[in-house]
Amino acid sequence: MQSISLLNLLYMLPPLILVAFYYYIWVGKKTEIALATLRMSIQLIVIGYVLTSLFNTNALWLLALLVVVMVTTASLIARRNIRNKDIQTYFVILGAIALGGTFNLALVLWGVLDLENPLAPRFVIPLAGMIYANAMNAISLCAERYEKERENHDSEKARAIAFKASMIPQINSFLAVGFVSLPGMMTGQILSGVDPLIAVRYQIVVMAMILSSGAMSNILYLMYVTRKER
């Protein structure tokens, strides 16, 4: 696969600077894009070294630690846009992401892929990253929308609106994939020389697990908050 030099990465700075400028002018937050970009870069460099070590050693304790870090961090990020940030809400989000995401991860690793070693880090980490990140985004949209809808509707109506809104990105992706877009995983496999028909099978698995993990996390969260309000 074609390597990217560190110098060539700088070509991505001009569009980021343009976005940061308008984000500041329109939203009023001067450093958010810059800090997010810096954090993204540092996190990816760190995880690059961690994954290199993990792939070389196959240490189960390090694999488990990395998955725990993924889930706890995703849960912290998911609650950043909601008003209620107490510890109970955090644990509800944590439980929803952990249960909904881990179920789908186990299903793919032990069922769909039929691997000789389902706990091989090169399979677990990329799949876990996609699943937990998607569950994080879905539950973040869901929780934020539910809070706003509760100002004008009862819990059941707010739940329906929030659940539908949180599913829009995933459903749109299902409708657009293939004709409108080639998703990242499929594109990466094709660029690395994998047969497109094999890449398609993997992408179907990824799309299904992404929708299911996000939806199941939302269902668990909404079931808890609506039952709590009764």
Written overview of the protein:
The chain is mostly helical. The chain folds into two domains: 1-57; 59-228, no CATH class. It has helices at 13-27, 32-57, 60-78, 87-112, 121-149, 155-176, 184-191, 196-228. α1 packs across α2 and α5 crosses α8. The protein starts with 12 loop residues before the first helix and ends with a helix. The mean pLDDT is 86.
What order do the helices and strands come in, and which of them pair?
Layout (H helix, E strand, L loop, with lengths): L12 H15 L4 H26 L2 H19 L8 H26 L8 H29 L5 H22 L7 H8 L4 H33 L2
Helix pairs in contact: 1-2, 3-4, 3-5, 4-5, 4-8, 5-6, 5-8, 6-8, 7-8
Radius of gyration: 19 Å
Q: What does the overall shape look like?
A: globular
Q: Which residue ranges are poorly predicted, with pLDDT under 50 across at least 5 consecutive positions?
A: none
- What is the element string, with H for helices and E for strands? HHHHHHHH
Overall structural class, as computed from helix and strand content, comes to mainly alpha
> What helical percentage do the residues reach?
over 70%
Overall mean confidence score, pLDDT:
86
Count all strands and give the number.
0
Distance between the termini: 55 Å
Instruction: Quickly count the helices.
Output: 8
